[in-house]
Automatic annotation (TrEMBL):
<dbReference type="InterPro" id="IPR045031">
    <property type="entry name" value="DHP_synth-like"/>
</dbReference>
<feature type="domain" description="Pterin-binding">
    <location>
        <begin position="14"/>
        <end position="265"/>
    </location>
</feature>
<comment type="similarity">
    <text>Belongs to the DHPS family.</text>
</comment>
<dbReference type="Pfam" id="PF00809">
    <property type="entry name" value="Pterin_bind"/>
</dbReference>
<keyword id="KW-0289">Folate biosynthesis</keyword>
<comment type="pathway">
    <text>Cofactor biosynthesis; tetrahydrofolate biosynthesis; 7,8-dihydrofolate from 2-amino-4-hydroxy-6-hydroxymethyl-7,8-dihydropteridine diphosphate and 4-aminobenzoate: step 1/2.</text>
</comment>
<keyword id="KW-0460">Magnesium</keyword>
<keyword id="KW-0479">Metal-binding</keyword>
<dbReference type="InterPro" id="IPR006390">
    <property type="entry name" value="DHP_synth_dom"/>
</dbReference>
<comment type="function">
    <text>Catalyzes the condensation of para-aminobenzoate (pABA) with 6-hydroxymethyl-7,8-dihydropterin diphosphate (DHPt-PP) to form 7,8-dihydropteroate (H2Pte), the immediate precursor of folate derivatives.</text>
</comment>
<dbReference type="InterPro" id="IPR000489">
    <property type="entry name" value="Pterin-binding_dom"/>
</dbReference>
<keyword id="KW-0808">Transferase</keyword>
<dbReference type="InterPro" id="IPR011005">
    <property type="entry name" value="Dihydropteroate_synth-like_sf"/>
</dbReference>
<protein>
    <recommendedName>
        <fullName>Dihydropteroate synthase</fullName>
        <ecNumber>2.5.1.15</ecNumber>
    </recommendedName>
</protein>
Length: 272
């Protein structure tokens, strides 16, 4: 089970986390949902399509992205968070800033999604104080702007696994009720690193915590398929995520909820 404040989601089948980017510069849909009304409409669409969780982010963490000031991130995020909370599905907040996380959790966010892997002790303390799970993601350095310069590994699976294990133990020891592990596909990783991580995903699943995989529309999918436009990488994204589900992933972070829900329905009938 994934315990989210006053509710619990079964992990008997993979859950779909719908991506809602409240940014002008995200790699796939930057600028599309900056307007709160458009963001709410997209959130409603994803819920109707079968999203189990909504993941709101107001700062792009694509390679080379510039940081967003705290107050600007709050301005983008908090009104939309308030608007989507009544939709009836848990809401995750994708932020690396404790100041943003605290206000989002006060409003009622159910899950903290930290791309820097809870390196900041204040993020650990917030998840513990509000009693919410935290997604711990691997990135070689806690700066998206510089991460690709550090895409060097001996055994990428071992290094990612060791980092996630250590951060999970630290968080749980500090009172965070539950952790979700994210290998961080594309974050400081080249195509070959992403493929090895996906092929050996069971080694991360074996740590015993729910594993989240987010390959939706990413460069890796484009490199494998030859599809240059991110919005057209739906089929490749679905294929990668179904493979991840077979390997034990229990949360899939996706842009295209309907396509993934249909694919998972067939997958579950045949395999689940």
């Amino acid at each position: 089970m994934l315990w989210l404040r006053d509710r619990a989601l079964s992990l008997d089948r993979p859950l779909l986390m719908g991506i809602l980017n409240l940014t002008p510069d995200s790699f796939s849909d930057g600028g599309r949902y900056l307007d709160p009304e458009k963001a709410l409409k997209r959130a409603e669409e994803m819920v109707a399509e079968g999203a189990d969780i909504l993941d709101l982010g107001a700062e792009s963490t694509r390679p080379g992205a510039d940081p967003v000031p705290v107050e600007e991130e709050k301005r983008r995020l908090l009104p939309v968070l308030e608007a989507v909370l009544p939709l009836g599905v848990p809401v995750s907040v994708d932020t690396r800033k404790p100041e943003v996380a605290e206000e989002a959790l006060r409003l009622g966010a159910h899950l903290l999604n930290d791309v820097t892997g809870l390196r900041d002790e204040r993020m650990v303390a917030l998840a513990a104080r509000f009693g919410v799970p935290a997604v711990i993601m691997h990135m070689p350095v806690p700066d998206p702007k510089a991460m690709m310069a550090h895409a060097r590994y001996g055994d990428v699976v071992k290094e990612v696994r060791d980092f996630l294990k250590a951060q999970a133990e630290k968080a749980l020891g500090a009172g965070v009720p539950q952790v979700v592990l994210d290998p961080g596909f594309g974050f400081g990783k080249l195509l070959e690193h992403n493929l090895v991580l996906l092929k050996r995903l069971e080694e991360i699943v074996a740590l015993g915590h729910p594993v989240l995989v987010g390959l939706s529309r990413k460069r890796t999918i484009g490199e494998l398929t030859g599809v240059e436009v991110p919005e057209r990488r739906v089929a490749g994204s679905v294929a990668a995520h179904l493979f991840a589900a077979l390997k034990g992933a229990r949360i899939l972070r996706v842009h295209d909820v309907a396509a993934h829900r249909e694919a998972l329905a067939v997958w579950h009938a045949l395999w689940g």
